[in-house]
């Protein structure tokens, strides 16, 4: 009967060992963090189980086993199958979630600049307005328009114009923290959603971005440099104001900045 005990235990070990492949697959998908460490701990625990299974089999190999030993080995086998099933299902689920997240990210990112696109704005701004009202925090937005961008396209070509847009998008994203969202609003326009920023904070942020854009020209492969400036229109959410109202006020402020000479910041009056 010892042969049966060892065989059942060995099969359980095979399932446990194969479950480590699924766990390692999950670890390869995760990028650190608490969840990654938890799966590492689980992999170590499975390794300890394997050692326990091996010790049990070695102890029962030379001697006659009882019915109780067979029952225990069957439980070990069932445990190995259970761990294997859960690990495999978790790996498939993780892989599918990552694939869906990547697809959603592709659908909401502007392929040229790498910032979020207009489609994402519709959802994000409604969400932030709801949060601002629920928490009582401020919410401000900036609309950024590159000055005389048509001249860049006419002088250097549309491919270079695309490089300028990508460069400016990276500059804007670099200035903003993780709690702010940068969106390509359309053409040569960008939009920043800044939760928690009041009028004073959004004006300071706008001037910082404006200076960064002006002071960081795009360096071309031929050694040339293209310097662009931008105009800014900002608005801060008022009580009972709609998303459309917030956008329209920022757009009017941007128009004022353009009309007053460009390369400046204008905020909408509350």
Automatic annotation (TrEMBL):
Query: Which SMART domains has this protein been placed in?
Result: GGDEF
List residues of the GGDEF domain. Answer: 137-270
Its BP terms in the Gene Ontology are:
cell adhesion involved in single-species biofilm formation; negative regulation of bacterial-type flagellum-dependent cell motility
Name listed for the protein in its UniProt record: diguanylate cyclase
Identify the species of origin. Answer: Pelagibacterium luteolum
Q: Which Gene3D superfamilies match?
A: 3.30.70.270
Q: Which residues form a coiled coil?
A: none
The kind of enzyme this is, by top-level EC class, is transferase
Which reaction is catalysed here?
2 GTP = 3',3'-c-di-GMP + 2 diphosphate
Q: EC number(s) for this protein?
A: 2.7.7.65
Instruction: State the source organism's domain of life.
Output: Bacteria
Q: Example GO molecular function term?
A: diguanylate cyclase activity
Transmembrane annotation, as ranges: 41-59, 66-87
- Kindly list the GO CC terms recorded for this protein: plasma membrane
**What keywords appear on the UniProt entry?**
Membrane, Transmembrane, Transmembrane helix
Under InterPro entries, the record lists: Diguanylate_Cyclase, GGDEF_dom, Nucleotide_cyclase, Rev_trsase/Diguanyl_cyclase
Q: What is the lineage of its organism?
A: Bacteria, Pseudomonadati, Pseudomonadota, Alphaproteobacteria, Hyphomicrobiales
């Amino acid at each position: 009967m010892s042969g049966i005990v060892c065989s059942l235990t060995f099969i359980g070990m095979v399932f446990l060992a194969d479950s480590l492949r699924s766990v390692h697959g999950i670890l390869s998908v995760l990028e650190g963090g608490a969840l990654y460490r938890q799966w590492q701990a689980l992999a170590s625990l499975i390794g300890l189980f394997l050692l326990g299974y091996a010790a049990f089999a070695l102890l029962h190999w030379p001697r006659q086993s009882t019915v109780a030993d067979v029952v225990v080995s069957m439980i070990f086998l069932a445990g190995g199958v259970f761990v294997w099933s859960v690990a495999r299902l978790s790996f498939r689920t993780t892989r599918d979630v990552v694939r869906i997240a990547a697809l959603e990210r592709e659908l909401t990112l502007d392929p040229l600049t790498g910032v979020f696109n207009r489609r994402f704005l519709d959802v994000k701004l409604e969400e932030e307005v709801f949060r601002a009202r629920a928490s009582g925090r401020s919410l401000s937005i900036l609309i950024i328009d590159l000055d005389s961008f048509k001249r860049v396209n006419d002088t250097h070509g549309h491919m270079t114009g695309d490089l300028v847009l990508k460069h400016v998008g990276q500059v804007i994203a670099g200035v903003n923290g993780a709690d702010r969202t940068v969106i390509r609003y359309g053409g040569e326009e960008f939009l920043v959603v800044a939760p928690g920023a009041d009028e004073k904070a959004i004006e300071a942020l706008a001037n910082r971005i404006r200076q960064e854009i002006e002071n960081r020209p795009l360096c071309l492969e031929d050694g040339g440099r293209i310097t662009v400036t931008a105009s800014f229109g900002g608005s801060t959410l008022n009580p009972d104001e709609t998303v459309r109202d917030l956008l329209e006020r920022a757009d009017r402020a941007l128009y004022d900045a353009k009309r007053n000479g460009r390369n400046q910041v204008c905020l909408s009056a509350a």
